Amino acid sequence: MPKLILFLFVITTTINNIVLAEPVHDTRVIIVGSGAAGIAAASKLLQNGFNDVKIIEAENRIGGRLWAVKIGQWVHGEEDNVSFELAWPLGLLEHFNYSHVFTTRFFNSSGEQLLPEVLSDVTYFYFNLTENSDVNDIAKAESYGDFIIEKMEEYFKRLPEVTDDMKKSILYLFNLVQGSSDGSDDWTKLSPKMPRDYPKKYPNPAEELPVLNNTILNSKVVKINYDSSDTPVEITTEEGKKYLADHIIVTPSLGVLKADYEKLFNPPLPDKKINAIQNLEMGHVAKIYLYYEDPWWHDEIFVKFILWSDEERKQMEADPAKRWLLGYYTAVEVEHKPKVLCLWMTGPYVTEMEQVSEEEFNNKTLHFVNQFFGKSYNLTQPSIIKRSMWNTNDNFRGTYSYRSITSDLKNAQNKDLAEPIMKNDKPVVLFAGEATDEHFSTVHGAIHSGWREADRLIKLYKI
């Protein structure tokens, strides 16, 4: 787990005294979006002699879907993770301590702990199921969720102490857990053919350069006109400003493309790209951080899973004021942040949660914590509660992409989304972002996609 960090500081700061390359040409490049993909693309272009590179960003900050707050943030994974490799040399991270033993407990809505040893074994089985299964057997299922359900039902037969109602609660829980990993609202929508790990490693993680001076904030692109075959691409922003470029790299999220592609591009995008935009999926995940001056869990390092009963779920589904709480599925103590509790939420409930007023959100979240943990712990009150708000922000419209069974049926490919639009044998509109990469849904996928498109232009102009 790393120290508090806005990760993109790493790729917007000069590293190891690297010097900007001498300009080799006056090619104009505009990058839409200053997330991981946009900054990675700009950094590599500047390093390789492109002296006219601008990033146009709709938000009032850089970072895209990476945004640190003062009470916690971390990088997921260390091995073969370009995010980790960029930040580690600067002393901004700490190694995850695998010697720590996490306490895994299950709580129902009455605040009772349920079968800790048995349910810990169930959890171990679930998290290792993919690794211990043949990829071809997984691919034969109608969906990834159907594969998991079938295997879990077989496993439950060995556990007579797990009641039928508990089985439903466990499957509901693991559905939400899977959603936090893949971004899906329901695991029965997930493609059984999508990769579950990302072994590829990208070289030269420390060769990125500063781009802040070339970034225009608070400027939303509303039109990309690439109609003419002999003039530059014209970019129009919401305030009416126009920019000309020889090449544009489009990096907004898949959620933004889904909502805006028809009005954003002139002429319309190719059918293959539209198919990818329409049928790749954008998921919904949220993190809620609670900061306690006096933590009620003390020195315990834990993962606490939530088991909603089938009956209670039906009651809450019928109550719009409470329904969003069903998205909560776990509480995790953040390592090296001993005063921070992280609640995870997934599924369609995330958007509903974001639409609740701050006061109502805080009150119901505290009630939720008390309901599930109040019997087992002497609870204290948090002084800060922060929630992510990606899904209702028009500049993001979700957290990260995933492949669904519809993606497979419609043959929607990430590589089709990545394919540039060519004019006179030159790529004039290029696409980057995690959804365009084989490592979709990850930060390192976003970074690689930005490097990929920068390399495309570097190769084009290589003397």
Low-confidence stretches: 1-20, 72-76, 96-101, 199-208
Question: How far is the first residue's CA from the last residue's CA?
Answer: 43 Å
* Alpha-carbon Rg, integer: 23 Å
Give the fraction of residues assigned to helices. Answer: 25-40%
| Sheet/helix structural class | alpha/beta
Number of discrete helical segments: 14
Strand order of the largest sheet: 4-2-1-8-18-17
Query: Which range does the strand content fall in?
Result: 15-25%
Principal-axis shape equals: globular
Averaged pLDDT: 83
The largest pleated sheet is described as: 6 strands, mixed
The tally of beta strands, per DSSP, is 18
Signal peptide: 1-21
Protein name: Similar to SMOX: Spermine oxidase (Homo sapiens)
Pfam families: Amino_oxidase (PF01593)
Domain Amine oxidase: 37-123, 216-458
Describe the structure.
The chain has 463 residues and is α/β, with parallel strands linked by helices. Helices cover 32% and strands 19% of the residues. The chain has 14 helices and 18 strands. It has a 6-stranded mixed beta sheet with strand order 4-2-1-8-18-17, covered by helices on one side. It has a 6-stranded mixed beta sheet with strand order 3-12-13-14-11-15, sandwiched between helices. Helix 1 (36-47) runs parallel beside helix 14 (443-461). It starts with 24 loop residues before the first strand and ends with a helix. The relative contact order is 0.18. The model is unreliable at 1-20, 72-76, 96-101 and 199-208 (pLDDT under 50).
